[in-house]
Amino acid sequence: MEIIKDIAATQEVEWGTLADAIDRNFDEASTGIQTVAQKVDLLDMASPNYCVGEWQNGELSPTSVNTIGDTSILDKWDFYLIDTTDNTGETNHPVGKLKRNNLLRFVDGSFAPVIGITEAMRAECDVELYLDNTQTNKYCDAGAFDAEAFYNQYGMTQKLYNAAGEEVRILRPYETTETKYTIGLGRADKIYLLDNVVGKSGKRWKGIFASPTTWDGIDTTLWGLDPTAISPCPVCTIGNKTRSFFYVYEGESNCKSSNGINDRCTMFSNGRTYPRVNDMNQVNDMTWSRANNADPDAPYPFAEGGYHALNTFINCLEIRYGTKYLHKESLFSGGICSNDSVSEAGWTKTGGIRYKKTADSTWKYANWNTTPSDMFYNASGGKTNMNEFLSNYCPKEQCMESQMAASFAVETGVQEGEEFEFYGATYYYRNIVDTKGLADGEMNVKVYKKMSQTFNAYDELGAETSFDVEVILRMALYAGANLSGDVFAYCGGGYEQVGTCVNAASASVNNPVDIYLEPDQKKWLKETSVTKTNLGTFDFEKSYMKLGSSTNLGDSYAKERENYAAWKTAKGGSLSTGECYYAWDNNYWSSTAMQRVRIAARFRGNANNANCSPRNLNANNAASNTNRNNAGFAQEGSFIIVKLFIRVLERQIIIRQCTCGYILYLRSTVVEINITFYAQLAIKMKNRIVDIFDNITEKDVNLAIDRAIHKHMNKREVISFLDNRPSNCKQLYSALKDGSYINILSYKYLEKTNKNGKDRDISSPTLETRIYQHLLLNLLEPTYYQKDNNYGLNCKKKSGITATDKKRSVVHKMKNIFYDRLDLSYCLVIDQRKCYEHIKEKYFRKAIKKIVADKKLIDFAVNICFVNNKLPIGTPTSPFAHHILMLSFDYFAKSLTKECVRYADDNFLAFHTKEEAQQAKWRIKNFWWYELGMRAKRHTVKIQPLSIPLDFCGYKYYRNNNSKTSHNKGYTKIRKRVADDAKRCNNDRSWGSYFGLLKHADTWSLMRKIENKMRLTELTNKIKIDRKMDAKNILPKELLGEVISIYEYEIRYDSKGNANWIKCLIGMDEKDEDGESTGRTIAREFHGNFQGIIQYIILCEKAFGKKQLLPLEDVEIENQCGYIFKGSTNQLEYISKDENN
């Protein structure tokens, strides 16, 4: 038999092979290896894609005896901002990933819209604003307030005032008036759960695997969890649609918490949004969650909270921390609960209540289940526990409150234990010991909220008395999720506990219970009935997996539970032993004999319970039960992260349409893909080109030569190359085939300042390099243009700023948006930071693989396109390489809005509302960073109304017309710099170029002025003064590093016959804006008293004669104590001893 240690030590094996070997080893007790851990001690070396915890079977200890594998797989739960209107398919693409310890920002550092405010709150900053209440220090005009800019400059302390001197509420960059967002805590990968199962070895296992695995004889194939996000807390609703979101205004019906009993205490009726209770049950949880879907009957992409996802998350925590007792006070705790005693010494850690008569000086400490003996809610001695007294059993924590308070602490640099204010309340926090806390980038933390109120109640004598009450809410976040305490929450999606009432007379315990599970959210049924008489069956019993049958044993702690389920199968243990949870399973769900009932699946625990925990199960009512302490969970399943989809795109791929959508046939594996943007992109990218590089012929190289020399025929290197074209072509072809072409690639590096004053480093390729570049373009362009969606309009055939084809013209598209699309009100302008410089090879490889399945061709493309791991400026391939990189983004942009334009790295997108534009900004920045490895320019990204003029690609567009044009829609101006250059044009050729630009703008007056000037030009064309060697002057210092030719010269002498002045007519290679030669030679002249040049030419003329000397080619000028021709002097290199003497 093969031993694991031997396999891992001697060969590389895939995880599946190693897992099979592990399973075989479990069957062999005679191997001499004493423990399972020893058998797999080298497993970590093989794969990081699993982690397993081992518990002693039959033991009450909550602590695992061993952890095997890589714990990092357990931690891959991230926060995502989700748009609930992205709901038409089976999947949802999140707006973006949030920081794990600061939900106010996306992971790229930009602000996320995660705190809900009203329009009235937002509008307070629409007025003229001042930094002082005396209106002496104006901050901005009305409508000009930028929340992010203000926050970045002043932080949280500076106040703002309106023109009346009244303080205004300041809009923060993470606030939004949108109500469509929700926040999910999810994974982007599919994982497989091993939950509480005894294997062949007799060990009890919990585990997480990245692929279906058989572990110790246990097959995990059936227990997969697709990419899914769970709600991090009990949900509220907006318009009867579930949300996990923090709103700083009062929620809708049943999302408002409550006054305490008899309205004595009002501290929780504070105008905020709380988890929905009173009418929440398993059916309503399903209805309100699925109401987010385009088809509210479908379970995708949004659904009620699913038990399998919750159970998987809890398992990750239990394995990660090696214990089922996660809720002990020294670890995460039970949250807002009565698990821990409350005392003066410890109540700042445990939370709880302290109270006293206002006239007294001594505080009494109480838990939520404490019934005070000296404080009554009526004059007749009515008394109850503190939970009912203060909140009437309703939620005390607002929806997503603890997560946002913790995020604000990170955002503003609050230290552990330090009190801080957040939206009018006082908080502090404590990191969880032996975990990664807020400072470590994680959200394992207890957030504490201090509250207080003085209200009237009754004393022991029935007299109305004033009482002071102070509360500390301890809100526990388990990796960002609020899992325990405060109120129960339904989480029964895909999970059913069906009880049968067998004895109506005494039906409290020992009734049969059948357990069902469906891990796949897409297969969940919509079941609205809760009971079936005469042993009737539910539809889900025909399709869900039956986990087992048990009985209701009666309210108690759980010593054991059903595998993959919440149901208690054996009594025993305690809050800290056994399964570490309490199960309420007495039968209050039916008193009708032979009636089958869906039993409620509620978790967490109530604040006045002393047994709150993540697995606490309240299953003593039917699934239709509602209560003021019953909330609900939601989940968003099968969401798509970009990398998840792209990972599927292997080489051999066929896409076919079927009734349910599209299917990818990947070799022998069939993978169903939902119709989302990414699936549509994949369909567009099908038929990738293969086997191209090996089939390149010499004819292909010849075609590339034709393209490379076009418009460069007069260049010296071209003439030289063409003199021996057949041989040179063969040499280039041979080098291509044997790979030595890499040694031929060469560039000339130049520095150039463009018209905007920006310095550019130009990489001008040699002719041979340019031929290879055009060969690449010839190979790839046909495939690219088949897949192009015409979003990017630069450097493409028949496309451009002023192209005649309206579909490919920037100006025509922009005019259509500004003039005709009056339904569009806002725009986003966003461009990339140092575009070519920041494009990295690995991202280009990933992008080109979407259209090319030929590895050799991909390697060739990388070698040809990149110089020092970045795209150079000045080559014909760089714009095309950028287009390939941006191809997936071009489709993504058009999925955001159809009215959009990209010219190189400049992007314009038009939207109906400002919120749509803001959302697009965040999504684009995240797409660029995660998929392209690029950042947006921080200070040039802008969102503005289309009513404000916009400068884009050389033109300025106006929507508010002011009767400046006959069509009365709007008008267009040319950029001022272009207009100024046009005014200076003095020949027909220049005028033709500028006329091509000006005719697309409303510049009739300017064109008239220029035409009048051109009449003078016509005259000067006929009458000219003849001047010898007349050309545009250039200074010698501008010629340093340039190769020139001298075609004519004139030397002048002083009265003594000494040569003291020279004028040279020179020719030099003309370059375009990208530093590439145009193939033309431009004429220039320089003159002056340059003795080094004068004396050298005089000597040459004496030796050869002027006629033989000219033209003087391949000349370079350098400054060596005056300007000279390079190499024209005998310079000393060393000093000899003789010269020293």
Short note summarizing the structure:
By secondary structure, the protein is an alpha+beta fold.
N-to-C terminal Cα separation, in Å?
90 Å
In the sheet with the most strands, the strands line up as 32-31-33-36-35-26-37
- The number of helical runs is 29
Shape: elongated
Low-confidence segments, ≥5 residues, pLDDT <50? 1-19, 22-47, 640-676
Give the oligomeric state.
single chain
DSSP strand content: 15-25%
Notes on the structure:
The chain is an alpha+beta fold and 1141 residues long. α14 packs across α17 (767-787), α17 crosses α21 and α17 runs parallel beside α22. The model is unreliable at 1-19, 22-47 and 640-676 (pLDDT under 50).
Question: Which short descriptors sum up this protein?
Answer:
six-stranded antiparallel β-sheet, alpha+beta, 57 strands, elongated, 1141 residues, seven-stranded mixed β-sheet
Write the layout of secondary structure elements.
Elements: H1 4-10, H2 15-26, H3 36-39, H4 43-46, E1 50-55, E2 66-69, E3 78-83, E4 96-97, E5 115-116, H5 119-123, E6 129-130, E7 138-140, H6 147-154, E8 175-176, E9 181-186, E10 191-198, E11 204-209, E12 214-215, E13 218-219, E14 224-225, E15 228-230, E16 236-237, E17 242-243, E18 246-247, H7 282-290, E19 302-304, H8 307-321, H9 347-350, E20 352-357, E21 364-366, H10 386-391, H11 401-412, E22 420-422, E23 425-431, E24 445-458, E25 464-477, E26 488-490, E27 495-501, E28 512-517, E29 531-532, E30 545-551, E31 556-561, E32 568-571, E33 582-584, E34 595-599, E35 602-604, E36 613-618, E37 630-632, E38 634-637, H12 642-646, E39 653-658, E40 661-666, E41 669-673, H13 677-684, H14 698-709, H15 716-723, H16 725-738, E42 747-753, E43 759-765, H17 767-787, H18 810-820, E44 826-831, H19 835-838, H20 841-848, H21 855-865, H22 877-896, E45 900-903, E46 906-911, H23 914-932, E47 942-945, E48 950-952, E49 955-958, E50 971-974, H24 976-983, H25 988-998, H26 1004-1022, E51 1032-1033, E52 1044-1053, E53 1059-1071, E54 1077-1088, ...
Parallel strand pairs: 5-8, 5-18, 26-37, 33-36, 51-54
Antiparallel strand pairs: 1-2, 1-11, 3-4, 3-9, 6-7, 9-15, 10-11, 10-14, 12-13, 15-38, 16-17, 19-38, 20-21, 20-25, 22-23, 23-24, 24-25, 26-35, 27-28, 27-34, 28-30, 29-34, 31-32, 31-33, 35-36, 39-40, 40-41, 42-43, 44-46, 44-47, 45-46, 48-49, 49-50, 52-53, 52-55, 53-54, 56-57
